[in-house]
Amino acid sequence: MTERRTDIDLDAALAAGAALFNEGYALAAHDPWEAAWLPLESGAAERLFHGLIAAAAATHHATAWNWSGAVGCAENAARYLGAVDAAGETDIGDDADAGRGVHVRPVRDWCRRLAADPEVIERTSPPAIRVDGTALALPDLDLAATLLAAPALAGAVDAGTEATVEEAARLARAERGTGRTTVTELVVAFCREPSSRPQVAARLADHVDRERRKQRDVDGLF
User: Fold this and answer.
1) Residue 182 lies in a domain
2) DSSP state of 102
3) Neighbour count for residue 136 (Cβ, 10 Å)
4) Which residue of 105, 123, 180, 190 has the smallest Cβ count within 10 Å?
5) DSSP string, 26-76
6) 168 touches 182 (CB < 8 A)
7) Which of 136, 166, 186 is the last residue of a domain?
8) Same-domain check for residues 25 and 109
9) In terms of pLDDT, which residue wins out, 3 or 182?
10) pLDDT of residue 69
11) Residue 105: inside a domain, yes or no?
12) CA separation for the pair 21, 129 (Å, rounded)
């Protein structure tokens, strides 16, 4: 479930989706990108996120052997990303109105290959998405990006639920400035420590359940 917020940091969402995509979670990458894209007006940023969302969908469909779905999404992605690439001075556009640091051309070219031959997914892997020259992975993300990536990751792995981790991410944001870091540290560990995810997810669920009980107790006073 995509987090429906209107205060999404575009750079954090961009990084979160790139890290998920690069680690093989193409469908999960769709979530933080869509959360950032939904409030956008038409313009370069809207085209960039729209193109990345379509690229993630195309890659996912190809992986699932849904060739027609892959072709349709890949054609859309190539069109949107081609417009972004054309707007930038270089492949790595540091212009906030163009590529927002994304190396757009390899992703666009990958989508063109998928559109022409979706079965290419069986012969080669998609290119890593580079932001400011770096192929991000989950351990590379800052806290804002990690809190966006974690719920989407939960929906892609067999550890916890997306709704629980999304609520945990909300609690982690609420910890800022309070001196408390327990939930924040757990959400970070969920993203960065694959072997510990089931145990971390269970602890996050305990924190979320405890917070829900507290809220029900408060509501019962009124």
Assistant:
1) yes
2) B
3) 24
4) 123
5) HHHHHHHHHHHHTTPPSSHHHHHHHHHHHHHHHHHHHHTT-HHHHHHHHHH
6) no
7) 136
8) yes
9) 182
10) 96
11) yes
12) 7
**Residues 121 and 212 both lie in one domain:** no
Mean pLDDT, the chain, integer: 88
Q: What is the DSSP letter of 103?
A: B
Give the C-alpha separation, 45 to 148, whole Å. Answer: 18
Under DSSP, the state recorded for 92 is: B
Q: What's 91's DSSP letter?
A: S
Q: Considering its fold, how many domains does the chain have in total?
A: 2
- Cα 168 to Cα 11, 23, 161, 176, 188: the distances in Å are 21, 22, 11, 13, 11
Residue 4: inside a domain, yes or no? Answer: no
Phi then psi dihedrals of residue 116, to 5 deg: -80, -30
Residue 146 belongs to some domain of the structure? no
Full residue range of the structural domain in which residue 212 is found: 157-219
Q: What is the pLDDT of residue 95?
A: 39
Is 21 in contact with 56 (CB distance < 8 Å)? yes
pLDDT tens digits along 135-169: 999 999 999 999 999 999 999 998 878 999 999 99
Clarify whether residues 97 and 57 are in a common domain: yes
The pLDDT tens digits of the residues spanning 92-133 come to 343 334 578 899 999 999 999 999 999 999 999 999 999 999
> Residues 125, 188: one domain?
no
Euclidean distance between CA atoms 54 and 138, whole angstroms: 21
Whether residue 194 is predicted with pLDDT greater than 90 in this model: the reply is: yes
Residues 130 and 164 in one domain: no
pTM over 0.90: no
